[in-house]
Amino acid sequence: MSERLPTTPGVPRMRPLSIKKPSIISVLDVGSSKVACLIARLTPKKPGSILPGRTHDVHVLGYGMQRARGMKSGVVVDLEQAEQSIRLAVDAAERMADITIESLIVSLTAGRLHSEVFRASVDVAGLEVDEADIQRVLAAGGAHSVTDDRSLVHSLPIGYALDGTRGISEPCGMLGKKLSVDMHVVTADAAPIRNLELCVNRCHLSVETIVAAPYASGLSALVDDESEIGVACVDMGGGTTSIAVFADGHFCHADAIAIGGHHVTNDIARGLSTRLADAERIKTLHGSALATSSDDHEIVGVPSVGDDSHDIVNIPRGSLTRIIRPRIEEILELVRDRLAASGYAGRVGKRVVLTGGASQLTGIVEVARRILGRNVRLGRPLGITGMPQAAKGPAFSAAVGLLIYPQVAQIEQFRPRAGRSLVPEGSYLARVGQWLKEAW
Question: Cβ neighbours of residue 173 under 8 Å, at least 6 residues apart?
C-alpha cells in the first residue's frame, strides 16, 4: 500500500454509529509522553437506559501503549520515530483484540487550539420550525472563513434562539418567525494536523476523524451534572496543558498552553543534576507540589550524571518540592489567566476537573484549589469496561473520550475547508441524510 499524503486541510468527518447493531471503533491518542491505541466494541444500549451523550455501552477489546518518540508538545518532530511508536501501539492493540483495523479516530493536542462562536439567523419557512429550517440555519452558521494556515477541527451548535428567545435546545416543531443558532468553532494550525495524519497514513492506516484532546477528556471524565452547571476540564499532559469548558451540556470553549509535565521533569534534572530518566522516576515516586512538615526529614536518593553515575546524592524531599512547586504554580496560573481571558470564567462556576498524566502529581489538587479559587477534583475515565487496571487513571481520559466521541459526533455540522467560505450544498445534505438514515 502506498503512502497517502493528506490533501484536505479540514478534518475528515466520520459516519454516525448504528443504534441497531454493535460497532467496532479504534482510536489513537498521540501525546507528548505516550501513544495509546484502544479497540472497543460499542453496543447500543437498551431503551430506557440511555444516558445523555451515552447511547452505547463501551467494552475495550484491545489495548496498546508505547512511549512517544518523535513528538514534542503534541507536534510531530521526527516522522520515522513517531511512525514507529504508532505502529507498535496499534500492533499491540490488534494482537490483544485479534482484529485488524484500517482507520482510527485520532486526538489532537498541538496546533494552538482556538475557539470562536459564530451566530447566524434564518427566517422560518412555515408556521413552525421543521428539519429543513434547522439545516438551513446550521448551514448559515457554517458559512464562515478559515484562513489558509488554520484547519477546522470542530463545528458544534451550542444553542438555538427563536424570535429572540434563547436557551432552546430542540427548536423542531416550535412556532416562530426567526431561527438563530450559536456555533462553537474550534480551529488549529494546519501543518501539525497534516503531519499527524501523514504519520498515521505511513502506518497504512487512515484517519477517520480528529478530535481535540481536551474535548475528548471532558467526554470521559465529566459527569452529567458537571457539564450542565458549568465546568472546566484541564488536561495536563506531558508537553501541553489544554482546557475545555462545558456549560449547559455543550462544549463551548477550548484553549491550550505549551507547558506540561515534561517541563517539571526538566526542572528536576537541571536542579538536581541528574538524567532525565532518573528525574522522571524521582518525580513519580517522591515528587509533590505541596510542602509538608516532614519534607526536610525525608531523604531522596539522586543518581549523579556522568562517569560517577553510580554515586547517589541524598537530598531532603523538601528540596525536590521547592523545584516542582514553582512550575506547577506557573501552569495553574496560566490556566487561571486563560479562563479569565476567555470570557467563560463565570460560566465555569466553582468546578474544575483535572485529567492527564501530570495531574497525578501528589498535592496538585490542593494547589489548584488555592490558585484557581474553585472546587477541584481529579477526573478518571467513566462508563467503560474491559480497560486494564493500569489504564484506568487520569492519563487515559483522552483515549477513552475518543471511544465516547462517536456517540455524540452526529451533532457536528458543516466543516468548511480552510481558506474559503463554504456554504453546504444540497448534495452534501443529501449524503448526511443518507448516513443518518442508514444509522437509524
Answer: 128, 129, 130
> What confidence tens digit (pLDDT) does each residue in 85-124 have?
999 999 999 999 999 999 999 999 887 888 888 888 888 8
The Cα 328–Cα 335 span in angstroms is: 11
- Bridge partners, 189 (sequence order): 150
- In DSSP terms, 151 is beta-bridged to 188
What amino acid is encoded at 81 in this protein?
Q
Q: Which 3 state secondary structure label does DSSP give 55?
A: coil
Q: Which residue type is seen at 272?
A: L
Cell numbers of 354, please?
483535572
In this structure, the strands spanning 375-378 and 351-355 are parallel
Buried b (16+ CB within 10 A) or exposed e, 225-235: ebbebbbbbbb
CB atoms within 10 A of CB 47: 6
C-alpha 86/C-alpha 70 separation (Å) is 10
For 174, the grid coordinates are 416550535
Collapsing DSSP to helix, strand or coil, 422 comes out as: coil
How far apart, in whole angstroms, are the C-alpha atoms of residue 289 and residue 308?
A: 30
Q: Where are the alpha helices (DSSP H) in 230-350?
A: 261-272, 276-286, 317-342, 345-348
- Cα–Cα distance for residue pair 110/260, rounded to 1 Å: 12
Residue type, 83: E
Q: For residue 151, which of 185, 106, 177, 126 has the smallest C-alpha distance?
A: 185
**Number of Cβ atoms within 10 Å of the Cβ of 66:** 18
What whole-number distance in Å separates Cα of residue 215 and Cα of residue 185?
A: 12
State pLDDT tens for residues 155-175: 888 888 888 888 787 888 888
pTM of structure: 0.85
DSSP 181-194: EEEEEEEEEHHHHH
